[in-house]
What we know:
By secondary structure, this protein is of the alpha/beta class. The protein has nine helices and nine strands. The model is unreliable at 288-309 (pLDDT under 50).
Amino acid sequence: MIVKLPRHRPQRKFSNAKQIILECSLIECVHCGAELELRRPRHMRKTVQTMDGAVFVAGKSKECINPSCTHFGKHYYATGVLKYSLPYSTYGLDVLAFIGWEHEHEHQQLVEIQSSLNQRGVEINESNVGKLYRQFLALLGGTIAHTQEKLAATAIEHGGLIWAIDALQPEGHGTLLYVLYEVLSGTAVSGIQLPQAQAQRLIEWLQPYKELPYKVLATLSDGEKSIIAAMNSIWPTAPHQRCQAHFLSNLSGSVLPLDTKLRQQLKADLDGMPKVSEYSERPQDPGSEQQQDSLPFFQKLPICHETQS
């Protein structure tokens, strides 16, 4: 009898991968308006290979803790993880965009793209290059049957949708890849490649999604003016919010150099101070030492309390 062995899958380890922990972008429950509580467990975690190296991405969800809410205990997930890779994929969206650009515009064969990615430090074979190219075409193709089903189910559960757009630019390429995804369901819906940020092209791209028969509860994006203009044009009555991850990242960009300088100054000032003596210089009562020595041996030992596990 011939025993079929499982297909070999290489064990890849990226010990120097940068850790990125993302939280749910929503602040309040979309049903009751109560503040959402951050949950400790991570609802997803994976290592993603990007054009700039491997990153460890994890998402932390939030929960509605209002007992009177119709969706009490509902978990809202960190859809910001879709900025780095598609669901069930361990390759970054910038790798996806690189493959699409090289094959569509540079007319490179899949094996040539594989060789180029390997030289850039991305561990990938020709088969996975082809798989990612098909995912790239599906993303540019827009909504498909199962995606439409997820959008419909989300609209029924929450009374509408929350749209978000993110843009990325692979290193060394002028093209921009814009990705549209639905926040509440964490679904990547569509994508478009543009040579530069153009609000009118984005409006034309979003037009089919304006025709969907679902209420739009809100829109999310970074601070790019063309994206904000396009989303406000397509969904003018929906409130717009900047993504917290992008907002905090922009803040840290100006604060980090100042914080580094402050820490260096503190270190220089503290290094000049004399070390603290091992023994306290406070005068002690002469009788205290004698009284301590008169204690039985078992009372000098620290008391340990056992806990049952």
